[in-house]
Write a structure and sequence with these properties.
The chain is α/β, with parallel strands linked by helices. Helix content is 35%, strand content 20%. The longest helix is centred in the last third of the chain and has 16 residues, at 189-204. The protein binds tricarbonodiimidic diamide.
Length: 222
């Protein structure tokens, strides 16, 4: 079986059953005036990974493998937004409020959209998710099943919140999970480091981590 050089040990690649999941590379997390900034975060940390995420996406497209995008967002009537989530963190702009990029994290608003450099192309699945995890209250599980996917590569933001939550959900559902190290980021560098340690500890208890180069090379040459 082909392998991808990874931590804590080589990732056993199933070339016909792997997909990329790009988590929440949305303007609301990466641009001033969005949700991430309203929570008091330095969003420039997020924009810096865009070239690496792009390289990974292009590697999957070139290999003819599925790319799935997620967006954290809610219905305009807020019926899928628990008050406990709306009120959490006391942000300057709450989810659903009118901000400089439209209503914060609401489906269809400009700020909720994926960064233009990383925009989905025709045929790629886009999952709108009301939670931090991409399996909760979404069709992701059924879509992966219908495509015969058994392994998932993860990129996107933030490493310890939506990426780690989704990796844990996927791991419990039987998927082998591989995180692309330079293609994920946190507002807190120490949280990214800690999340990667938690994921890969105890013999890859949640999953593996590898460089973008190792992943792109692995899927290209398998
Ligand atoms: N996508 C995602 O991670 N949503 C968050 O709210 N993350 C934070 O780190 N705030």
């Amino acid at each position: 079986m082909p392998e991808i050089k990874a931590d804590p040990f080589a990732f056993p690649l199933k070339r016909d059953a792997i997909a990329l999941v790009v988590i929440d590379m949305q303007r609301d997390f990466a641009e001033p005036g969005g949700f991430g900034a309203s929570l008091g975060n330095d969003v420039s940390r997020i924009t810096r990974i865009v070239p690496d995420v792009k390289r990974l996406i292009e590697g999957f497209r070139a290999a003819g493998l599925p790319v799935i995008h997620t967006m954290e967002c809610h219905r305009p009537d807020l019926s899928d937004l628990p008050p406990a989530k709306r009120n959490r963190g006391n942000p300057a702009l709450k989810i659903g409020d009118e901000g400089p990029m439209g209503r914060v994290l609401i489906s269809g608003e400009p700020g909720t959209g994926i960064l233009p450099e990383l925009a989905p192309i025709n045929g790629e699945v886009v999952i709108e998710k009301p939670g931090k995890g991409a399996f909760y209250a979404t069709p992701l599980g059924e879509i992966l099943k219908s495509k015969g996917i058994e392994q998932l590569v993860f990129a996107g933001v933030t490493t310890e919140v939506c990426v780690q939550t989704t990796m844990r959900e996927a791991n419990d559902r039987g998927y082998e999970c591989l995180l692309a190290e330079e293609a994920t980021e946190s507002y807190f560098p120490e949280f990214k480091t800690a999340a990667i340690s938690m994921i890969t500890a105890q013999g890859a208890i949640v999953g593996w981590v590898a460089s973008v180069d190792a992943i792109v090379e692995g899927i290209a040459h398998a």
